[in-house]
Amino acid sequence: MNAGKNKTYLRALAGEAVTPPPVWLMRQAGRYLPEYRELRSGVKNFLDFCYTPDLAVEVTLQPLRRYGFDAAILFSDILVIPDALGQKVAFREGEGPVLTPIRSADDLKGLGMDRLHDHLAPVYETVSRLASSIPETTALIGFAGAPWTVATYMVEGRGSKDHAAARTWAFDGDGFADLITLLTDATAEYLIRQADHGAEALQLFDTWAGVLSPSQFGRWVIEPTAEIVARIKAAHPDIPVVGFPRGAGVMYETFVRETGVDGVSIDNSVPPSWAARVLQPMCTVQGNLDNMSVIAGGPAMEAEVRGILAALSGGPFIFNLGHGILPETPPENVARLVDIVRGA
Ligand code: CP3
User: Fold this and answer.
1) Distances in Å between the alpha carbon of 239 and those of 143, 202, 215, 236?
2) How many CB atoms lie within 10 A of CB 55?
3) What integer pLDDT is reported at residue 4 of this predicted model?
4) What is the C-alpha separation between 238 and 155, in angstroms, rounded?
5) Does the annotation mark 31 as catalytic?
6) Whose CA is nearest to atom 48 of ligand 1?
7) Which of 13, 225, 278, 289 has an alpha carbon within 20 to 30 A of 105's alpha carbon?
8) Within 10 A of 145 (CB to CB), how many other CB atoms are there?
């Protein structure tokens, strides 16, 4: 792995305690950056924006130019998978994603993998172009939503707070396991293609993992994740995979033990000292600054950053947030954050 030697993010994922630790931020490309808003204003439909390699490459690079992050994350969205499977997906201004809900085994009949790779070809093109254009010390992360989280959007038809329809169907319904199997297959293939095109690590975003009971967490978070990790490793034995089962609480430990991930991204409810003691001996830990503290900035943010660094720098660690950066974030606070992590 000569390519990995000068990439601190990949060294950390290989198990090394790197000083200072690599840093990147979930959702580092996006609306908090004026240069993103400028490009985004030229395209009505957010999915079209994701499927235009010229634009997706450019917005992936924007935060690297400002902050020199140690990793770039492909610019796309987790909802390209339902879109590629044949579900209608739209993003409405101020409202977020809107999908035609899938609520029964019958509704599943309209979905399928036959057009998956054709539909996602522009994303693969973006990955290829990024692989040859990012700085040589920067790692390229590919990603997908994990099956449970993508299913919540497919079933609810929109973002939701309690995920009632998906959680109910998951308990009693004919067809829900088939939906998760379809998503597991599609997600594994999608991530393997991203690796084929030059992604050097893969992250699975399971934003809504924390709403499930322990038995359901095992079935709909751990099992599909373990299956996806196994399939990726069969095709690309050396590519590291990072899981982000947000809100998993005490289940983070079981998640790491049973899925085979190389790294785990923790949300800001997890005490860094607990993660250092329990998770770091098993895998690389990524996280977990409260995204609100970056809006606040100043000494409060600095104290949080230093606390996380003190707890986790002794083992394999990647500095990140506990969830994606928010649109209200002042860009100068991000610059300060990166300076603190790098020892300024
Ligand atoms: O990290 C990055 O910079 C890469 C790009 C990325 C986006 N979405 C771009 C995006 C990634 C990794 C995602 C993941 C994603 N998308 C998740 C999982 C992570 C998380 O934050 O929980 C989820 C749940 C989604 C689904 C999604 N996409 C929602 C609910 C929304 C609307 C809410 C919002 O933030 O606007 C999106 C839209 C979206 N995805 C935007 C961006 C930059 C904003 C769209 C715009 O520019 O109008």
Assistant:
1) 12, 8, 29, 6
2) 18
3) 63
4) 34
5) yes
6) 46
7) 225
8) 25
Alpha helices in 197-312 (DSSP H): 214-217, 223-235, 251-259, 272-274, 291-296, 298-312
Structure tokens, 141: 């992360």
CA distance 157 to 161: 12
Is residue 277 annotated as a catalytic residue, yes or no? Answer: no
The C-alpha atoms of residue 9 and residue 21 are separated, in whole angstroms, by 8
Which residues touch 170 (CB under 8 Å, ≥6 apart)? 176, 212, 216, 219, 220
The low-confidence residues of the chain, meaning pLDDT below 50, are: 1-2
Cβ atoms of 128 and 142 within 8 Å: the answer is: no
List the end-to-end C-alpha distance of the chain, in Å, as a whole number. Answer: 31
Q: Which two tokens stand for residue 35?
A: 């240069």
State the Cα–Cα distance between residues 250 and 253, nearest whole angstrom.
Answer: 6
Outline where 14-92 has alpha helix (H).
Answer: 34-40, 46-50, 53-67, 80-85
Pick the catalytic residue from 153, 190, 246, 267: 153
Asked if 40 and 62 count as a contact pair (C-beta separation under 8 A), the reply is no
Closest CA to 265 of 304, 210, 228: 210
Q: Does residue 338 contact residue 20 with C-beta atoms inside 8 Å?
A: no
- Catalytic, 77? Answer yes
- Three-state secondary structure call for residue 143: strand
- The whole-angstrom separation of Cα 307 and Cα 169 is 41
Residue with tokens 């979905």: 111
Instruction: Tell me which H or E stretch contains 246.
Output: none
